[in-house]
């Protein structure tokens, strides 16, 4: 079976990474600019806090430019760390997951994915973006458009999957987010072949 991992960026990505580690038993890494967000991730999930400078801010909020600044402060040290190099070197496929409408996830993910794909050409990176609901603030919609523009314009040969929260707008917001997170992990499970049954000749799915 292929060796698969998850990097979750921003709060949405962090929660999916934590769920992936629990349900799929695969290696994960959570990256955020908010220490408070990282505190909501279960104990045992490896994490990296982006450097915010002095005085430190609370996070990026919905500000993609601020998130990029935090990444710039951190990226060289982060990509050279044993935590990251040993993590990625052990994988065949890495899912890079974030929301498209937030600050940290939306701002950091396209740039980080571009850097990782150049440093690790033998690893298959698959980006997963979670879109905002239509009723969410205009900032989230604009952030999503900028995220997609960077995705299409700056990263060559990118593989990506986009999930739409609006498909589940009949649910309470907290349950909708949980449901989408569960769907992402379930789909990764399918892609990993966890529903296949081995036979003497090949495999057949359940």
Give the secondary structure arrangement, pairings included.
Elements (H helix, E strand, L loop, with lengths): L3 E6 H15 L3 E5 L2 H5 L7 E3 L14 H16 L2 H8 L3 E7 L4 H16 L4 E8 L6 H17 L4 E6 L8 H19 L4 E3 L4 E3 L1
Parallel strand pairs: 1-2, 1-4, 2-3, 4-5, 5-6
Antiparallel strand pairs: 7-8
Helix pairs in contact: 1-7, 3-5, 5-6
Gist of the model:
With 206 residues, the protein is α/β, with parallel strands linked by helices.
List keywords for this structure.
six-stranded parallel beta sheet; 20% strand; globular
Summarize the structure in words.
The protein has 206 residues and is α/β, with parallel strands linked by helices. The protein is 47% helix and 20% strand. It contains seven helices and eight strands, in the order E-H-E-H-E-H-H-E-H-E-H-E-H-E-E. The chain has helices at residues 10-24, 35-39, 64-79, 82-89, 104-119, 138-154, 173-191, and strands spanning 4-9, 28-32, 47-49, 93-99, 124-131, 159-164, 196-198, 203-205. A six-stranded parallel sheet has the order 3-2-1-4-5-6. It has a two-stranded antiparallel ribbon with strand order 7-8. A hairpin with a 4-residue loop joins strand 7 (196-198) and strand 8. Helix 1 (10-24) crosses helix 7, helix 3 runs parallel beside helix 5 (104-119) and helix 5 runs parallel beside helix 6. The chain is globular and about 60 Å long. The chain starts with a strand and ends with a strand. The mean pLDDT is 88.
